[in-house]
């Protein structure tokens, strides 16, 4: 899994910095967008993500109002 800093851009361009992927394949032409056309935010939620084989992450949509940090934000998981 990419770090928070690498984010979803790691789906589009080979990430720089750590963690470096052993095998990388471009999975998207652009950062995925939510149903309202806004880019999702990605956050690695495991502080020791490099040492753990399956770190936890969150995908966040700003929701219908397109503002992060408001009541209609959608967070997975």
Element order: H for helix, E for strand: EEE
Report on the biggest sheet: 3 strands, antiparallel
Strand content: 15-25%
List the quaternary state of the chains: single chain
Strand element count: 3
Tally of helical runs: 0
Q: What would the principal axes of the Cα set say about the shape?
A: globular
Helix content: under 10%
- N-C termini distance: 15 Å
Radius of gyration: 13 Å
Structure explained in plain terms:
With 77 residues, the chain is an all-beta fold. The chain is built from no helices and three strands. It has strands spanning 41-44, 57-61, 74-76. A three-stranded antiparallel beta sheet has the order 1-2-3, with no helix packed on it.
